[in-house]
Specification:
188 residues; Peptide Deformylase; five-stranded antiparallel sheet; two-stranded antiparallel sheet; 25% strand
Length: 188
């Protein structure tokens, strides 16, 4: 297993739809193991294959809820069903999220509170997860990566403008930028 470099916004692999996983083999299982190691080292709660330069419809997630229950898995070729979004003012404390491809930045974004994830695990076995709250947010965030969408692309004014300024200030937005968890500190 290895910690992989995480691509930063501007790299083309992050801004294009990913291809379906077609083979559930040792190569995919090795990628999944490396992605879990990278996500843990970052640290993060989710990581999509395009974030490590692999244009496949695959993501990993790992989060422990307030009751101590661990939610950990891999989703290949996912389909995501969402509940309607609530309306009203954004709660910046409860609805803020970050992204390992925009390291160190956090902005509020409205997401659906519930989701149903249908996908395949690393062995090609289908599964379904019903998620609420933060886990539903994780699934939506990672699923967006597979369609070439970063959460900053969805931000409303004035947060979208602040994200654009952060990208410019950090010198991101160009192909090839990445950081290595455990070595680099991109938020500095």
């Amino acid at each position: 297993m290895a910690v992989l470099p995480i691509r930063i916004t501007g790299d083309p692999v992050l801004h294009a739809p990913a291809r379906p996983v077609t083979a559930f083999d040792d190569e995919i299982r090795a990628l999944v193991a490396d992605m879990f190691e990278t996500m843990t080292a970052a640290p993060g709660v989710g990581l999509a294959a395009p974030q490590v330069g692999v244009p496949l419809r695959l993501f990993v997630y790992g989060w422990t809820d307030e009751n101590g229950q661990e939610h950990r898995g891999v989703a290949a070729n996912p389909v995501l069903w969402l509940s309607p979004m609530s309306i009203g003012e954004l709660n910046e404390d409860e609805e803020s999220e970050g992204c390992l491809s925009l390291p160190g930045e956090r902005f509020p974004l409205r997401r659906s509170n519930s989701a149903i994830l249908q996908a395949f695990d690393a062995d090609g076995t289908p599964f379904e997860v019903h998620a609420d709250g933060w886990l539903a947010r994780i699934f939506q965030h990672e699923y967006d990566h597979l369609d070439g969408i970063l959460y900053a692309d969805r931000l409303a004014h004035p947060h979208g403008k602040a994200a654009v300024k952060a990208v410019r200030k950090n010198g991101w937005g160009t192909p090839g930028a990445s950081w290595l968890p455990g070595v680099d500190h991109p938020e500095d």
